[in-house]
Structure formats: C-alpha cells, structure tokens
Amino acid sequence: MQINISARHGELSSATQEKITEKVGKLPRFFDRLTAIHVTVDMEHPDAPSIELRVSAEHVEDFVATDSSSSVLAALDGVLHKVERQLRKHKERRTEHKATGLKHIETPLEPEPGAE
C-alpha cells in the first residue's frame, strides 16, 4: 500500500508527515484491500487548514473525504473518522449480501402417512 502526502500553499514538517503516515497506516484494519492513500493538506488559510483524503481499493471507486479544522492533526482526525465510516459501510454491504447455502435451508416436514 502506497501512502502519498502532499501540501498546497505551504510545507509540512517531517514530524507532521510521520504522524499523518502513522495514523493513515491504520486504515487497512477496516478494509484489507486498500492499494493507495493520498493525503492532500491545503494550507491556504493558516487558521483553518483543510485535508482531503483519497483512499483507493481494489474493484471499488475511491473513498474520498475532506475536512478543515483549527490544526492539521484535528482536521486529519475528522477526515479519518469519515473514511473509516465509509470503509465500514462498504465492508458491511459486501458481507451481508451472501445467499444461504442449500445445505442450510430447512426442508418442510412431511406428515407421516396414516398419522391422521
């Protein structure tokens, strides 16, 4: 899984980049078929930076979330919460739509002849 971090209108310190990588690296526990994660930090407004998180997975359209807050890490927490919710919902949809196997279907009991 690739993790790309980019910044617009400013630069991120290496400590902040490591913290972002650490937090984003935990996403595969919600859905294990992730292929790439792109984090874009927009610091056009220094008092309210915004983060866009784009998560790519196999055979699925990208999961995208954006959030802005008073600090970069607070915005990251909000974005992670939104993406985690999307990943959980997608995983539930995939696992709920399985049909019941024929060997698990109960057959109706036939009345015994002459039991009446």
Entry summary:
With 116 residues, this protein is an alpha+beta fold.
Structure description:
The structure is a single chain. The chain has 116 residues and is α+β, with helices and mostly antiparallel strands. 31% of the residues lie in helices and 28% in strands. The protein has 2 helices and 4 strands, in the order βαβββα. Strands 1-2-3-4 form a 4-stranded mixed sheet, with helices on one face. α1 runs parallel beside α2. The chain is rod-shaped and about 85 Å long. The relative contact order is 0.15.
Radius of gyration: 23 Å
Mean pLDDT: 89
Structural class: alpha+beta
Number of strands: 4
* Strand and helix order: EHEEEH
Spans of at least 5 consecutive residues whose pLDDT stays below 50 are: none
Query: DSSP strand (E) fraction?
Result: 25-35%
The portion of residues assigned to helices is 25-40%
Terminus-to-terminus distance: 68 Å
Sheet of most strands: 4 strands, mixed
Neighbour order of strands in the largest sheet: 1-2-3-4
What's the helix count? 2
Principal-axis shape: rod-shaped
Observed structural traits:
four-stranded mixed beta sheet, alpha+beta, 2 helices, 31% helix
Question: How does the SSE layout of this entry go?
Answer:
Layout: E1 2-8, H1 14-24, E2 34-42, E3 50-57, E4 60-68, H2 72-96
Parallel strand pairs: 1-2
Antiparallel strand pairs: 2-3, 3-4
Helix pairs in contact: 1-2
